[in-house]
Every structure is written in C-alpha cells, then in structure tokens.
Amino acid sequence: MKKTSLFVLFVMALSLFLITAGCTHNQTHIPPSTPVVTNTGQQGGYTSNESLLAFVDSAVEYVHIFGSEKALAEFNNPNGSFIKGELYIYAYGFNGTTLAHPINPEKVGKTRLDEGAIGVFVTEMGEEVRKGSGFYRFTYINPTNNRILESKLGYGIKIDDDWWLGSGIYLGPVDLSEDLLT
C-alpha cells in the first residue's frame, strides 16, 4: 500500500510539474541552454525539446523515489511507463555497459564500446553526461517510423559516478547520399 501511495504521489507531482512548467507538445519556447532544433520539411509526430527534457527529468525522479534496481526494471519494460511514442529511456554505465534499453533488450548487460557508431555515441555522450547532463546528436533507427535511420538529439543525466540515463528526439530521416559524397 505504501509503494502504491508513493507511486500515486510521484505521478501527481510529475503531472503538476509538467503543467506548471508548460511542458506541452506544441509549445515553441525553447530554453536557452537547449540546442535549438527545427524540423523543417518533416511531417509526423516529432517531439519537442521541452518534452524530451521533462521526460528524462521524470525518469531521474523515478530513480530517486524507487531506487536504481526498480527504476532499471521499469526502464527495460517495453510496455512500461517510460515509453511514450518515440521517447524511451535508455541507461548506460560509464564503462559502456547497457543497463536499460526497451527497444533493444538483447543489448542489456552488454558493453557496446566496440559497436562502431553506437560505441562512439555511448563514449562521447557519456563524457558529456559525466559533467551532470548533456546533449549529443547521432543517428539511430526510429522504432516508431518503420525503423528508418534518422538523426537524433539525445539528452542524458548523470545518476551517480557509475551510470547515466537518457532519451532522444528524432529529427528526421538521414540523407545517405550526403554521407556518400563526403
């Protein structure tokens, strides 16, 4: 009963925070510290920067309320509360080990540092997040858009000296012909 009460309190506090912070999908104001991203020419349900920040903040709050073990279990749940459209929480150890990834559960427990572009992402975003929080732009398959390779802006927060969590917003399909020319 106590856990249920804590969860209800958490949901209510998160809802109040999102409402008072004005974190809605259609807002156009972007905090000055957030990289400005425009989705010109894109159609579909792309997520705002504010929604990304609020989503990651809610995951951090969940860790603080319920602890790492319970939080990682929830982040790994493909039907859990931390999958919202294109947003989902992933978590990595600073050593490169995947701690949570509901889209690629087969990667949980594995070190990804030797996986080419993904290894670069895990290393470089980890370096940004080690400072407290940070952004990183990369390419990744969008599970909500026919698994098309898209540009993605990731945002992560350091949980402690061992691990961090993050999420990202998709910015549109990658033009592979440009990559071939450079």
Question: Which structural traits does this protein have?
Answer:
single chain; 182 residues; alpha+beta; five-stranded antiparallel β-sheet; two-stranded antiparallel ribbon; 7 strands; 24% strand; globular
Number of helices: 5
Instruction: Note poorly predicted spans.
Output: 16-44
The separation of the N and C termini measures 59 Å
Order of helices and strands: HHHEEEEHEEEH
Which structural class is indicated by helix and strand composition?
alpha+beta
In one word, what is the shape?
globular
The number of strands is 7
**Global mean pLDDT:** 79
Protein model, in words:
- With 182 residues, this protein is α+β, with helices and mostly antiparallel strands.
- 36% of the residues lie in helices and 24% in strands.
- The chain has helices at residues 2-21, 49-66, 68-76, 117-129, 176-181; strands spanning 83-84, 87-88, 90-93, 98-100, 133-142, 148-158, 163-173.
- Strand 1 and strand 2 form a beta hairpin.
Quick description:
This protein is an alpha+beta fold and 182 residues long. It contains five helices and seven strands, in the order H-H-H-E-E-E-E-H-E-E-E-H.
